[in-house]
Amino acid sequence: MKKYLLFLMVSFSLTVVAQKEYYELRTYSIPFNGAEQALHKYLKDALLPALNRHGVNHVGVFESLGSPTPKQILLLIPYKDIATYGEVVMALGSDDTYLESRKPYDAVPHTNRVYSRFSSSFYIAFDGLPQMIKPKKGSQLFELRTYEGYSEDAVRRKVKMFNKEEFSIFEATGLHSVFFGEQVSGPLMPALTYMLSFSSMEERDANWDKFRVHPDWKRVSALPEYANSVSDIKRTFLTPLEYSQL
Known about the structure:
By secondary structure, this protein is an alpha+beta fold. It has one domain (20-240): Alpha-Beta Plaits, CATH 3.30.70.100. The chain has helices at residues 2-18, 36-53, 82-93, 96-101, 103-106, 152-173, 201-213, 215-220; strands at 22-30, 60-64, 71-79, 117-125, 141-148, 176-185, 191-198, 232-240. An 8-stranded antiparallel β-barrel has the order 1-3-2-8-5-7-6-4. The longest helix has 22 residues, at 152-173. The chain is globular.
């Protein structure tokens, strides 16, 4: 009986550890002279506190580095799992505090709109990194990378490559992981997206140089099973806003 109970405890522990998060990555495009501050006030004073009340923590808010037009604000929301996402959406609809605090945001007139459009993409965490890693203090540069595949199988093989080989190389070369997710909805599918954090662009450049010459990367990148697993790469550099929880 004791051995059986121990087996159940170990099995339960492994299940908890292996539970994979579900991520929403929301991108707001801000029109020229748009009501950007209304968006920040909504996120800071209404949405993030409401998400926190309903058990969703470590919400990241970023803006694109430089001065792109249109300006982009990115919101990264980690959910415990896909079921939690649905539960939180329903809870927000009946959260009186949230509904009251978002009234100024809803009252912004069409002549001074907050955004031109926003898009949402959803991801399931990788087996090899089932939970988001909160970046270390002082991380001021975030790199968001999307790897598109020419087919679903290509993306599956690239995910496998990360799970079996690349995470250890990333760790060894100072590429600080925040999240890795296989896309389940949104544009650019089939694809995967991940985020890295750094203290500066100088650290970022130096550590990617270490990665490129690492012997394990040279070995694994030449394996036939991973050939042609990435057809295009999109990269964005981000900086966290002062109210970001990452």
